Amino acid sequence: MLPHQRIAGRERRTFHWRTASPWTTCVRVACCSRLRFMWFALMVLTVLCVALQMLGVVRQARSSKVLKLVSEQLVGMPSEMHRPVKRKDWGNVWSVSAAIVEEPLEQQPFIQRKDKSENPHSEEGRDQVLEDTRKTLSSTTKAAPAIEGNKLWLDQDFPNQPQRPAFPKRTPEIKKPPPSDDKTDTHTVKSLVDDTVMCQPKNHIVFLKTHKTASSTILNILYRYGENHNLTFALPLNMHSQLFYPAFFAAHFVEGVRTHSVKEFHILCNHMRFSSQEVRKVMPKDTFYFSILRNPVAMMESLFVYYKAIPAFRAVKSLEEFLIQGGRSYNASVPNNHYARNILTFDFGLDNTAPENDTELNKRSAEVIAAVEHDFPLILISEYFDESLVLLKHALCWSLDDVLSFRLNSRSERSRRPLSAEIAERLKEWNSLDWRLYQHFNATFWKRIDSTLGRAKLQQEVELLRAKRRKLEQMCLQEGGAVDPAQVQDSSLKPFQYGAAVIQGYNLRLELNNDTRQLCQRLITPELQYTSALYTKQFPQLAAAHAAAAKKIAASRNTAVHRAVKRNIETNVHTAMMNNTSHNNTNKVSVDEQLTRFS
After folding, report:
1. Are 212 and 312 in contact (CB under 8 A)?
2. Which regions are flagged for Basic and acidic residues bias (predicted)?
3. Over residues 439-462, mean pLDDT
4. The pTM of the whole model exceeds 0.85
5. For residue 324, what are the contacts with CB-CB under 8 A and spacing of at least 6?
Protein backbone atom coordinates (compact mmCIF):
# COMPACT_ATOMS: atom_id res chain seq x y z
CA MET A 1 0.00 0.00 0.00
CA LEU A 2 1.30 3.44 -0.86
CA PRO A 3 2.10 5.90 1.93
CA HIS A 4 -0.70 8.28 1.06
CA GLN A 5 -3.21 5.40 1.02
CA ARG A 6 -2.12 4.29 4.52
CA ILE A 7 -2.61 7.79 5.85
CA ALA A 8 -6.07 7.98 4.34
CA GLY A 9 -7.10 4.63 5.86
CA ARG A 10 -5.85 5.69 9.31
CA GLU A 11 -7.85 8.91 9.12
CA ARG A 12 -11.02 7.00 8.20
CA ARG A 13 -10.60 4.64 11.19
CA THR A 14 -9.97 7.55 13.52
CA PHE A 15 -13.10 9.26 12.33
CA HIS A 16 -15.06 6.01 12.79
CA TRP A 17 -13.96 5.56 16.45
CA ARG A 18 -14.72 9.19 17.29
CA THR A 19 -18.20 9.11 15.80
CA ALA A 20 -19.14 5.70 17.32
CA SER A 21 -21.49 5.59 20.37
CA PRO A 22 -19.94 5.13 23.88
CA TRP A 23 -21.59 1.72 24.40
CA THR A 24 -20.25 0.42 21.12
CA THR A 25 -16.80 1.68 22.02
CA CYS A 26 -16.86 -0.12 25.42
CA VAL A 27 -17.96 -3.39 23.89
CA ARG A 28 -15.26 -3.21 21.18
CA VAL A 29 -12.55 -2.35 23.72
CA ALA A 30 -13.64 -5.14 26.10
CA CYS A 31 -13.88 -7.75 23.37
CA CYS A 32 -10.87 -6.81 21.29
CA SER A 33 -8.82 -9.63 22.87
CA ARG A 34 -9.44 -13.02 24.43
CA LEU A 35 -8.05 -12.00 27.81
CA ARG A 36 -10.38 -9.03 28.03
CA PHE A 37 -13.32 -11.20 27.05
CA MET A 38 -12.53 -13.67 29.81
CA TRP A 39 -12.18 -10.83 32.31
CA PHE A 40 -15.57 -9.49 31.28
CA ALA A 41 -17.21 -12.91 31.69
CA LEU A 42 -15.72 -13.37 35.16
CA MET A 43 -16.98 -9.98 36.25
CA VAL A 44 -20.51 -10.87 35.15
CA LEU A 45 -20.38 -14.19 37.07
CA THR A 46 -19.08 -12.45 40.17
CA VAL A 47 -21.94 -9.98 40.14
CA LEU A 48 -24.45 -12.84 39.80
CA CYS A 49 -22.91 -14.76 42.72
CA VAL A 50 -23.01 -11.73 44.97
CA ALA A 51 -26.63 -11.13 44.07
CA LEU A 52 -27.58 -14.75 44.87
CA GLN A 53 -25.81 -14.59 48.23
CA MET A 54 -27.59 -11.40 49.18
CA LEU A 55 -30.88 -13.01 48.25
CA GLY A 56 -30.11 -16.03 50.45
CA VAL A 57 -29.23 -13.81 53.41
CA VAL A 58 -32.50 -11.93 53.06
CA ARG A 59 -34.52 -15.14 52.93
CA GLN A 60 -32.69 -16.59 55.95
CA ALA A 61 -33.33 -13.43 57.93
CA ARG A 62 -37.04 -13.65 57.15
CA SER A 63 -37.15 -17.30 58.21
CA SER A 64 -35.33 -16.55 61.47
CA LYS A 65 -37.76 -13.77 62.23
CA VAL A 66 -40.73 -16.08 61.68
CA LEU A 67 -39.26 -18.84 63.86
CA LYS A 68 -38.48 -16.39 66.63
CA LEU A 69 -42.02 -15.06 66.45
CA VAL A 70 -43.45 -18.57 66.71
CA SER A 71 -41.27 -19.54 69.69
CA GLU A 72 -42.06 -16.34 71.59
CA GLN A 73 -45.76 -16.80 71.12
CA LEU A 74 -45.68 -20.48 72.10
CA VAL A 75 -43.83 -19.59 75.30
CA GLY A 76 -46.52 -17.08 76.10
CA MET A 77 -49.42 -19.47 75.51
CA PRO A 78 -51.89 -19.89 78.36
CA SER A 79 -51.18 -22.53 81.00
CA GLU A 80 -54.30 -24.48 80.07
CA MET A 81 -52.64 -25.47 76.81
CA HIS A 82 -49.82 -27.17 78.80
CA ARG A 83 -51.85 -29.27 81.19
CA PRO A 84 -51.37 -33.08 81.27
CA VAL A 85 -53.26 -34.87 78.52
CA LYS A 86 -54.85 -38.24 79.09
CA ARG A 87 -54.40 -41.06 76.65
CA LYS A 88 -57.82 -40.73 75.08
CA ASP A 89 -57.27 -36.98 74.50
CA TRP A 90 -54.47 -37.47 72.00
CA GLY A 91 -56.82 -37.66 69.03
CA ASN A 92 -57.99 -34.12 69.73
CA VAL A 93 -54.47 -32.84 70.26
CA TRP A 94 -53.27 -34.29 66.96
CA SER A 95 -56.21 -32.92 65.04
CA VAL A 96 -55.63 -29.43 66.41
CA SER A 97 -51.84 -29.72 65.88
CA ALA A 98 -52.33 -30.85 62.30
CA ALA A 99 -54.63 -27.94 61.64
CA ILE A 100 -52.09 -25.52 63.06
CA VAL A 101 -49.27 -26.99 60.97
CA GLU A 102 -51.26 -26.92 57.75
CA GLU A 103 -52.61 -23.38 58.29
CA PRO A 104 -50.60 -20.53 56.69
CA LEU A 105 -48.34 -18.61 59.02
CA GLU A 106 -50.31 -15.40 58.76
CA GLN A 107 -53.52 -17.20 59.75
CA GLN A 108 -52.26 -19.08 62.79
CA PRO A 109 -54.01 -17.82 65.94
CA PHE A 110 -51.07 -18.61 68.28
CA ILE A 111 -48.61 -16.27 66.54
CA GLN A 112 -48.62 -12.68 67.65
CA ARG A 113 -46.35 -10.06 66.15
CA LYS A 114 -44.39 -7.75 68.39
CA ASP A 115 -45.50 -4.73 66.42
CA LYS A 116 -49.21 -4.19 67.10
CA SER A 117 -49.61 -2.33 63.86
CA GLU A 118 -48.59 -5.48 61.98
CA ASN A 119 -50.86 -7.78 63.95
CA PRO A 120 -53.78 -8.84 61.74
CA HIS A 121 -55.79 -9.81 64.85
CA SER A 122 -56.81 -7.42 67.58
CA GLU A 123 -56.41 -8.31 71.25
CA GLU A 124 -60.09 -9.19 71.46
CA GLY A 125 -59.88 -11.33 68.34
CA ARG A 126 -56.83 -13.18 69.59
CA ASP A 127 -58.44 -13.86 72.96
CA GLN A 128 -61.50 -15.16 71.20
CA VAL A 129 -59.44 -17.53 69.06
CA LEU A 130 -57.61 -18.86 72.12
CA GLU A 131 -60.89 -19.35 73.93
CA ASP A 132 -62.32 -21.27 70.97
CA THR A 133 -59.23 -23.48 70.92
CA ARG A 134 -59.56 -24.25 74.62
CA LYS A 135 -63.17 -25.24 74.11
CA THR A 136 -62.16 -27.50 71.22
CA LEU A 137 -59.62 -29.32 73.37
CA SER A 138 -61.91 -29.66 76.38
CA SER A 139 -65.16 -30.51 74.60
CA THR A 140 -64.50 -34.28 74.49
CA THR A 141 -62.11 -34.66 77.44
CA LYS A 142 -62.37 -34.59 81.19
CA ALA A 143 -60.82 -31.74 83.10
CA ALA A 144 -57.28 -32.48 84.21
CA PRO A 145 -56.25 -31.81 87.82
CA ALA A 146 -55.01 -28.28 88.34
CA ILE A 147 -51.29 -27.73 88.67
CA GLU A 148 -50.09 -25.26 91.23
CA GLY A 149 -48.43 -22.30 89.66
CA ASN A 150 -49.55 -23.35 86.16
CA LYS A 151 -46.41 -25.49 85.76
CA LEU A 152 -46.08 -28.46 83.48
CA TRP A 153 -46.58 -31.71 85.43
CA LEU A 154 -43.30 -33.25 84.32
CA ASP A 155 -41.34 -30.26 85.58
CA GLN A 156 -42.75 -30.16 89.11
CA ASP A 157 -40.26 -29.72 91.91
CA PHE A 158 -40.27 -31.61 95.18
CA PRO A 159 -39.42 -30.18 98.58
CA ASN A 160 -35.71 -30.16 99.41
CA GLN A 161 -34.85 -31.44 95.96
CA PRO A 162 -32.53 -29.60 93.53
CA GLN A 163 -33.45 -28.52 90.05
CA ARG A 164 -33.00 -31.19 87.40
CA PRO A 165 -33.21 -31.12 83.63
CA ALA A 166 -36.44 -32.38 82.16
CA PHE A 167 -36.50 -36.15 81.81
CA PRO A 168 -35.34 -37.12 78.28
CA LYS A 169 -37.82 -38.95 76.16
CA ARG A 170 -37.48 -42.43 74.79
CA THR A 171 -38.64 -42.93 71.23
CA PRO A 172 -37.54 -40.87 68.24
CA GLU A 173 -40.81 -41.38 66.42
CA ILE A 174 -44.20 -39.91 67.29
CA LYS A 175 -46.76 -42.67 67.44
CA LYS A 176 -50.37 -42.36 68.37
CA PRO A 177 -51.02 -44.41 71.51
CA PRO A 178 -53.92 -46.86 71.56
CA PRO A 179 -57.13 -45.77 73.23
CA SER A 180 -57.77 -46.89 76.79
CA ASP A 181 -60.50 -46.78 79.40
CA ASP A 182 -61.00 -44.17 82.10
CA LYS A 183 -59.03 -46.22 84.65
CA THR A 184 -55.66 -45.14 83.24
CA ASP A 185 -53.60 -43.96 86.20
CA THR A 186 -51.50 -40.82 86.35
CA HIS A 187 -48.25 -42.74 86.01
CA THR A 188 -49.32 -44.21 82.69
CA VAL A 189 -50.44 -40.80 81.49
CA LYS A 190 -47.04 -39.35 82.32
CA SER A 191 -45.33 -42.22 80.55
CA LEU A 192 -47.39 -41.62 77.45
CA VAL A 193 -46.54 -37.94 77.46
CA ASP A 194 -42.89 -38.89 77.87
CA ASP A 195 -42.95 -41.52 75.13
CA THR A 196 -44.53 -39.40 72.45
CA VAL A 197 -42.10 -36.48 72.53
CA MET A 198 -39.05 -36.75 70.33
CA CYS A 199 -35.55 -36.74 71.80
CA GLN A 200 -32.00 -37.11 70.57
CA PRO A 201 -29.73 -39.88 71.97
CA LYS A 202 -26.96 -38.49 74.14
CA ASN A 203 -23.46 -39.28 72.92
CA HIS A 204 -21.42 -37.05 75.24
CA ILE A 205 -21.35 -38.91 78.55
CA VAL A 206 -19.34 -38.91 81.78
CA PHE A 207 -19.85 -41.87 84.10
CA LEU A 208 -18.14 -41.68 87.48
CA LYS A 209 -17.23 -45.31 88.07
CA THR A 210 -17.49 -45.90 91.82
CA HIS A 211 -16.08 -48.96 93.62
CA LYS A 212 -18.01 -52.18 94.26
CA THR A 213 -21.32 -50.76 93.03
CA ALA A 214 -21.93 -52.85 89.87
CA SER A 215 -20.17 -50.08 87.97
CA SER A 216 -18.24 -52.58 85.82
CA THR A 217 -21.52 -53.66 84.23
CA ILE A 218 -22.38 -50.02 83.46
CA LEU A 219 -18.91 -49.62 81.98
CA ASN A 220 -19.52 -52.57 79.65
CA ILE A 221 -22.81 -51.01 78.51
CA LEU A 222 -21.06 -47.74 77.66
CA TYR A 223 -18.20 -49.55 75.93
CA ARG A 224 -20.55 -51.53 73.69
CA TYR A 225 -22.73 -48.50 72.87
CA GLY A 226 -19.72 -46.37 72.00
CA GLU A 227 -18.22 -49.11 69.86
CA ASN A 228 -21.51 -49.68 68.02
CA HIS A 229 -21.84 -45.97 67.24
CA ASN A 230 -18.16 -45.34 66.48
CA LEU A 231 -17.69 -42.96 69.42
CA THR A 232 -14.36 -41.90 70.89
CA PHE A 233 -13.48 -42.81 74.48
CA ALA A 234 -11.39 -40.71 76.86
CA LEU A 235 -9.09 -43.60 77.77
CA PRO A 236 -6.31 -43.58 80.38
CA LEU A 237 -2.81 -42.62 79.30
CA ASN A 238 -0.30 -45.33 78.38
CA MET A 239 -2.85 -48.16 78.30
CA HIS A 240 -3.62 -47.94 82.01
CA SER A 241 -6.95 -49.32 83.17
CA GLN A 242 -7.66 -46.38 85.52
CA LEU A 243 -7.22 -42.63 85.23
CA PHE A 244 -4.36 -42.63 87.76
CA TYR A 245 -6.72 -43.23 90.67
CA PRO A 246 -6.63 -42.31 93.59
CA ALA A 247 -5.07 -39.02 92.43
CA PHE A 248 -7.48 -36.26 91.48
CA PHE A 249 -8.36 -36.47 87.81
CA ALA A 250 -6.39 -34.19 85.49
CA ALA A 251 -7.06 -33.58 81.81
CA HIS A 252 -3.62 -34.81 80.73
CA PHE A 253 -4.41 -38.24 82.22
CA VAL A 254 -6.40 -38.90 79.03
CA GLU A 255 -4.59 -40.29 76.00
CA GLY A 256 -4.58 -37.79 73.13
CA VAL A 257 -5.08 -34.61 75.20
CA ARG A 258 -1.46 -33.43 75.29
CA THR A 259 -0.76 -34.46 71.70
CA HIS A 260 -4.10 -33.05 70.45
CA SER A 261 -4.49 -36.23 68.40
CA VAL A 262 -8.18 -36.50 69.32
CA LYS A 263 -10.51 -33.69 68.27
CA GLU A 264 -13.56 -34.75 70.28
CA PHE A 265 -14.15 -37.16 73.16
CA HIS A 266 -17.59 -38.71 73.60
CA ILE A 267 -17.44 -40.99 76.66
CA LEU A 268 -15.36 -40.79 79.85
CA CYS A 269 -16.07 -43.74 82.15
CA ASN A 270 -12.94 -45.27 83.74
CA HIS A 271 -12.07 -45.17 87.43
CA MET A 272 -11.04 -41.70 88.58
CA ARG A 273 -11.29 -39.36 91.53
CA PHE A 274 -13.66 -36.75 90.19
CA SER A 275 -12.55 -33.19 89.52
CA SER A 276 -15.26 -31.15 87.83
CA GLN A 277 -12.95 -28.44 86.51
CA GLU A 278 -10.52 -30.89 84.92
CA VAL A 279 -13.22 -33.13 83.45
CA ARG A 280 -14.80 -30.15 81.71
CA LYS A 281 -11.48 -29.43 80.01
CA VAL A 282 -11.83 -32.77 78.22
CA MET A 283 -15.57 -33.17 77.63
CA PRO A 284 -17.95 -30.92 75.62
CA LYS A 285 -20.41 -28.56 77.30
CA ASP A 286 -23.48 -30.69 76.51
CA THR A 287 -22.06 -33.74 78.33
CA PHE A 288 -24.44 -35.78 80.50
CA TYR A 289 -23.05 -36.77 83.92
CA PHE A 290 -24.22 -39.72 86.00
CA SER A 291 -22.96 -42.20 88.58
CA ILE A 292 -24.14 -45.08 90.77
CA LEU A 293 -24.32 -45.65 94.53
CA ARG A 294 -24.67 -48.74 96.72
CA ASN A 295 -25.76 -49.28 100.30
CA PRO A 296 -22.55 -48.65 102.29
CA VAL A 297 -23.26 -51.65 104.53
CA ALA A 298 -23.16 -54.24 101.73
CA MET A 299 -20.50 -52.25 99.89
CA MET A 300 -18.17 -52.29 102.90
CA GLU A 301 -18.43 -56.08 103.17
CA SER A 302 -17.39 -56.36 99.51
CA LEU A 303 -14.57 -53.82 99.95
CA PHE A 304 -13.14 -55.71 102.91
CA VAL A 305 -12.92 -58.95 100.92
CA TYR A 306 -11.57 -57.33 97.75
CA TYR A 307 -9.07 -54.97 99.41
CA LYS A 308 -8.02 -57.22 102.28
CA ALA A 309 -4.35 -56.39 101.61
CA ILE A 310 -4.59 -52.66 102.36
CA PRO A 311 -2.97 -51.54 105.64
CA ALA A 312 -6.28 -50.84 107.38
CA PHE A 313 -7.60 -54.38 106.83
CA ARG A 314 -4.37 -56.36 106.79
CA ALA A 315 -4.03 -56.71 110.57
CA VAL A 316 -7.57 -57.98 111.28
CA LYS A 317 -9.20 -61.29 110.44
CA SER A 318 -12.75 -60.09 109.81
CA LEU A 319 -14.79 -56.97 109.24
CA GLU A 320 -16.48 -57.52 112.60
CA GLU A 321 -13.12 -57.43 114.36
CA PHE A 322 -12.17 -54.25 112.51
CA LEU A 323 -15.37 -52.50 113.64
CA ILE A 324 -15.31 -53.82 117.21
CA GLN A 325 -11.81 -52.40 117.56
CA GLY A 326 -13.20 -49.07 116.37
CA GLY A 327 -11.07 -49.05 113.25
CA ARG A 328 -7.89 -48.91 115.31
CA SER A 329 -5.81 -50.11 112.36
CA TYR A 330 -7.16 -47.33 110.13
CA ASN A 331 -4.94 -44.34 109.42
CA ALA A 332 -6.22 -41.89 106.83
CA SER A 333 -2.72 -40.70 105.94
CA VAL A 334 -1.52 -44.16 104.90
CA PRO A 335 -1.78 -44.85 101.13
CA ASN A 336 -4.73 -46.98 99.96
CA ASN A 337 -6.57 -46.66 103.27
CA HIS A 338 -9.17 -44.47 101.55
CA TYR A 339 -10.91 -47.73 100.58
CA ALA A 340 -11.73 -48.32 104.25
CA ARG A 341 -13.89 -45.26 104.99
CA ASN A 342 -16.41 -43.15 103.06
CA ILE A 343 -15.05 -44.25 99.70
CA LEU A 344 -18.09 -42.97 97.80
CA THR A 345 -17.44 -39.46 99.10
CA PHE A 346 -13.78 -39.89 98.19
CA ASP A 347 -14.58 -41.01 94.61
CA PHE A 348 -16.70 -37.89 94.07
CA GLY A 349 -13.60 -35.83 94.82
CA LEU A 350 -14.77 -34.69 98.26
CA ASP A 351 -13.28 -34.82 101.75
CA ASN A 352 -13.98 -38.27 103.21
CA THR A 353 -12.65 -37.47 106.68
CA ALA A 354 -15.09 -38.66 109.35
CA PRO A 355 -17.05 -35.89 111.12
CA GLU A 356 -16.34 -35.50 114.83
CA ASN A 357 -19.93 -34.93 115.98
CA ASP A 358 -23.52 -34.80 114.75
CA THR A 359 -23.41 -31.06 114.05
CA GLU A 360 -20.41 -31.43 111.81
CA LEU A 361 -21.99 -34.52 110.22
CA ASN A 362 -25.13 -32.59 109.31
CA LYS A 363 -23.12 -29.75 107.82
CA ARG A 364 -20.63 -31.93 105.94
CA SER A 365 -23.24 -34.33 104.57
CA ALA A 366 -25.32 -31.42 103.28
CA GLU A 367 -22.25 -30.05 101.50
CA VAL A 368 -21.46 -33.45 99.98
CA ILE A 369 -25.02 -33.93 98.74
CA ALA A 370 -25.16 -30.42 97.26
CA ALA A 371 -21.83 -30.92 95.47
CA VAL A 372 -22.93 -34.24 93.93
CA GLU A 373 -26.30 -32.84 92.87
CA HIS A 374 -24.59 -29.87 91.23
CA ASP A 375 -22.46 -32.04 88.94
CA PHE A 376 -24.58 -35.16 88.43
CA PRO A 377 -28.19 -34.87 87.24
CA LEU A 378 -28.68 -38.64 87.53
CA ILE A 379 -27.59 -41.03 90.31
CA LEU A 380 -28.40 -44.72 89.94
CA ILE A 381 -28.88 -47.17 92.80
CA SER A 382 -27.15 -50.55 92.71
CA GLU A 383 -29.80 -52.36 94.78
CA TYR A 384 -32.35 -51.51 92.07
CA PHE A 385 -30.08 -52.20 89.14
CA ASP A 386 -32.68 -53.11 86.52
CA GLU A 387 -34.81 -50.13 87.49
CA SER A 388 -31.69 -47.98 87.21
CA LEU A 389 -31.03 -49.28 83.70
CA VAL A 390 -34.54 -48.35 82.60
CA LEU A 391 -34.13 -44.88 84.09
CA LEU A 392 -30.73 -44.54 82.40
CA LYS A 393 -32.23 -45.62 79.09
CA HIS A 394 -34.77 -42.79 79.26
CA ALA A 395 -32.23 -40.25 80.49
CA LEU A 396 -29.90 -40.98 77.56
CA CYS A 397 -32.73 -41.47 75.05
CA TRP A 398 -31.45 -44.95 74.21
CA SER A 399 -33.27 -48.17 73.39
CA LEU A 400 -33.80 -51.06 75.79
CA ASP A 401 -31.32 -53.17 73.82
CA ASP A 402 -28.65 -50.51 74.42
CA VAL A 403 -28.76 -51.09 78.21
CA LEU A 404 -29.05 -54.87 78.04
CA SER A 405 -26.19 -56.52 79.95
CA PHE A 406 -24.81 -59.41 81.99
CA ARG A 407 -23.42 -58.98 85.50
CA LEU A 408 -19.66 -58.42 85.38
CA ASN A 409 -16.98 -58.42 88.09
CA SER A 410 -19.42 -60.18 90.39
CA ARG A 411 -18.31 -62.29 93.35
CA SER A 412 -19.15 -65.91 93.93
CA GLU A 413 -21.71 -66.54 96.65
CA ARG A 414 -19.22 -68.58 98.65
CA SER A 415 -17.05 -65.49 99.15
CA ARG A 416 -19.94 -63.45 100.60
CA ARG A 417 -20.64 -63.16 104.31
CA PRO A 418 -23.90 -62.00 105.91
CA LEU A 419 -23.67 -59.20 108.47
CA SER A 420 -25.60 -58.91 111.69
CA ALA A 421 -27.86 -55.96 112.47
CA GLU A 422 -25.37 -54.69 115.05
CA ILE A 423 -22.50 -54.71 112.55
CA ALA A 424 -24.73 -53.00 109.98
CA GLU A 425 -25.39 -50.14 112.41
CA ARG A 426 -21.68 -49.86 113.18
CA LEU A 427 -20.97 -49.64 109.45
CA LYS A 428 -23.52 -46.85 108.99
CA GLU A 429 -21.80 -44.91 111.76
CA TRP A 430 -18.31 -45.67 110.43
CA ASN A 431 -19.25 -44.55 106.89
CA SER A 432 -21.58 -41.78 108.03
CA LEU A 433 -21.00 -39.49 105.04
CA ASP A 434 -21.57 -42.29 102.54
CA TRP A 435 -24.69 -43.40 104.44
CA ARG A 436 -26.22 -39.91 104.31
CA LEU A 437 -25.33 -39.64 100.63
CA TYR A 438 -26.96 -42.99 99.86
CA GLN A 439 -30.11 -42.20 101.86
CA HIS A 440 -30.65 -38.94 100.02
CA PHE A 441 -30.18 -40.28 96.49
CA ASN A 442 -32.13 -43.45 97.19
CA ALA A 443 -35.09 -41.20 98.01
CA THR A 444 -34.64 -38.89 95.02
CA PHE A 445 -34.24 -41.94 92.76
CA TRP A 446 -37.83 -42.98 93.37
CA LYS A 447 -39.11 -39.41 93.30
CA ARG A 448 -37.59 -39.05 89.85
CA ILE A 449 -39.30 -42.23 88.68
CA ASP A 450 -42.66 -41.07 90.04
CA SER A 451 -42.33 -37.64 88.46
CA THR A 452 -41.22 -38.83 85.02
CA LEU A 453 -41.88 -42.46 84.21
CA GLY A 454 -44.29 -43.84 86.78
CA ARG A 455 -44.18 -47.11 88.72
CA ALA A 456 -46.47 -49.01 86.34
CA LYS A 457 -44.50 -48.11 83.23
CA LEU A 458 -41.24 -48.77 85.09
CA GLN A 459 -42.31 -52.28 86.08
CA GLN A 460 -43.43 -53.02 82.55
CA GLU A 461 -40.04 -52.08 81.10
CA VAL A 462 -38.12 -53.89 83.86
CA GLU A 463 -39.95 -57.12 83.08
CA LEU A 464 -39.23 -56.67 79.38
CA LEU A 465 -35.56 -56.03 80.13
CA ARG A 466 -35.30 -59.18 82.24
CA ALA A 467 -37.02 -61.25 79.57
CA LYS A 468 -34.52 -60.01 76.97
CA ARG A 469 -31.64 -60.84 79.31
CA ARG A 470 -32.91 -64.39 79.90
CA LYS A 471 -33.18 -64.89 76.15
CA LEU A 472 -29.60 -63.68 75.68
CA GLU A 473 -28.32 -65.94 78.43
CA GLN A 474 -29.91 -68.96 76.78
CA MET A 475 -28.48 -67.97 73.41
CA CYS A 476 -24.94 -67.05 74.53
CA LEU A 477 -23.91 -68.94 77.65
CA GLN A 478 -23.07 -72.58 78.18
CA GLU A 479 -24.14 -72.94 81.80
CA GLY A 480 -26.78 -70.23 81.48
CA GLY A 481 -24.97 -68.04 84.00
CA ALA A 482 -21.70 -67.09 85.67
CA VAL A 483 -19.06 -69.66 86.70
CA ASP A 484 -16.03 -69.56 88.98
CA PRO A 485 -12.77 -68.38 87.37
CA ALA A 486 -11.28 -71.90 87.40
CA GLN A 487 -14.11 -73.02 85.11
CA VAL A 488 -13.66 -70.25 82.53
CA GLN A 489 -12.42 -72.01 79.39
CA ASP A 490 -11.17 -69.03 77.40
CA SER A 491 -8.25 -67.47 79.28
CA SER A 492 -8.71 -64.18 77.38
CA LEU A 493 -12.15 -63.82 78.99
CA LYS A 494 -11.07 -64.69 82.53
CA PRO A 495 -11.72 -61.80 84.94
CA PHE A 496 -8.92 -60.30 87.01
CA GLN A 497 -8.69 -61.82 90.51
CA TYR A 498 -7.75 -59.58 93.40
CA GLY A 499 -7.72 -59.98 97.17
CA ALA A 500 -9.80 -62.77 98.71
CA ALA A 501 -12.72 -62.26 96.33
CA VAL A 502 -13.67 -64.93 93.78
CA ILE A 503 -14.67 -62.99 90.65
CA GLN A 504 -16.82 -65.03 88.30
CA GLY A 505 -16.76 -65.20 84.50
CA TYR A 506 -18.67 -66.81 81.63
CA ASN A 507 -18.32 -69.50 78.97
CA LEU A 508 -19.81 -69.04 75.50
CA ARG A 509 -21.64 -71.72 73.57
CA LEU A 510 -19.50 -73.45 70.96
CA GLU A 511 -22.04 -73.57 68.12
CA LEU A 512 -22.48 -69.79 67.76
CA ASN A 513 -21.97 -68.19 64.35
CA ASN A 514 -19.49 -65.33 63.94
CA ASP A 515 -21.94 -62.44 64.37
CA THR A 516 -23.64 -63.96 67.40
CA ARG A 517 -20.32 -64.90 68.97
CA GLN A 518 -19.06 -61.34 68.56
CA LEU A 519 -22.21 -59.96 70.22
CA CYS A 520 -22.06 -62.43 73.09
CA GLN A 521 -18.32 -62.05 73.61
CA ARG A 522 -18.58 -58.29 74.02
CA LEU A 523 -21.28 -58.82 76.65
CA ILE A 524 -18.95 -60.93 78.82
CA THR A 525 -15.57 -59.29 78.14
CA PRO A 526 -14.06 -58.15 81.48
CA GLU A 527 -13.14 -54.54 82.09
CA LEU A 528 -9.36 -54.80 81.70
CA GLN A 529 -9.51 -56.74 78.42
CA TYR A 530 -12.18 -54.46 76.92
CA THR A 531 -10.28 -51.31 77.88
CA SER A 532 -7.11 -52.67 76.27
CA ALA A 533 -9.00 -53.60 73.08
CA LEU A 534 -10.54 -50.12 72.78
CA TYR A 535 -7.15 -48.49 73.33
CA THR A 536 -5.66 -50.64 70.56
CA LYS A 537 -8.52 -49.67 68.27
CA GLN A 538 -8.24 -45.92 68.94
CA PHE A 539 -4.44 -45.69 69.14
CA PRO A 540 -3.01 -48.60 67.11
CA GLN A 541 0.50 -47.16 66.80
CA LEU A 542 0.79 -46.35 70.51
CA ALA A 543 -0.59 -49.79 71.39
CA ALA A 544 2.01 -51.48 69.19
CA ALA A 545 4.79 -49.44 70.81
CA HIS A 546 3.56 -50.36 74.30
CA ALA A 547 3.37 -54.05 73.32
CA ALA A 548 6.95 -53.99 72.00
CA ALA A 549 8.19 -52.28 75.16
CA ALA A 550 6.35 -54.81 77.33
CA LYS A 551 8.00 -57.69 75.45
CA LYS A 552 11.44 -56.20 76.02
CA ILE A 553 10.76 -55.75 79.73
CA ALA A 554 9.42 -59.30 80.01
CA ALA A 555 12.45 -60.70 78.17
CA SER A 556 14.92 -58.84 80.39
CA ARG A 557 12.94 -59.84 83.46
CA ASN A 558 12.94 -63.49 82.41
CA THR A 559 16.69 -63.35 81.79
CA ALA A 560 17.31 -61.92 85.23
CA VAL A 561 15.06 -64.54 86.83
CA HIS A 562 16.79 -67.30 84.87
CA ARG A 563 20.20 -66.19 86.12
CA ALA A 564 19.00 -65.92 89.70
CA VAL A 565 17.43 -69.37 89.68
CA LYS A 566 20.52 -70.88 88.08
CA ARG A 567 22.74 -69.34 90.77
CA ASN A 568 20.38 -70.60 93.44
CA ILE A 569 20.49 -74.17 92.07
CA GLU A 570 24.27 -74.15 91.83
CA THR A 571 24.60 -72.80 95.38
CA ASN A 572 22.22 -75.35 96.87
CA VAL A 573 23.84 -78.32 95.14
CA HIS A 574 27.33 -77.07 95.98
CA THR A 575 26.35 -76.90 99.64
CA ALA A 576 24.99 -80.44 99.49
CA MET A 577 28.23 -81.65 97.89
CA MET A 578 30.29 -80.09 100.66
CA ASN A 579 28.11 -81.74 103.29
CA ASN A 580 28.25 -85.20 101.68
CA THR A 581 31.55 -85.75 99.81
CA SER A 582 30.88 -89.47 99.23
CA HIS A 583 28.26 -88.66 96.65
CA ASN A 584 30.11 -86.09 94.57
CA ASN A 585 29.52 -87.80 91.24
CA THR A 586 25.80 -88.17 91.95
CA ASN A 587 25.53 -84.54 92.95
CA LYS A 588 27.34 -83.41 89.82
CA VAL A 589 24.81 -85.30 87.73
CA SER A 590 22.02 -83.76 89.81
CA VAL A 591 23.36 -80.27 89.10
CA ASP A 592 23.51 -80.92 85.36
CA GLU A 593 19.99 -82.42 85.32
CA GLN A 594 18.47 -79.51 87.24
CA LEU A 595 20.14 -76.87 85.07
CA THR A 596 19.11 -78.68 81.87
CA ARG A 597 15.55 -79.06 83.10
CA PHE A 598 15.36 -75.39 84.09
CA SER A 599 16.79 -74.24 80.75
Report:
1. no
2. 112-135, 170-187
3. 96
4. no
5. 426
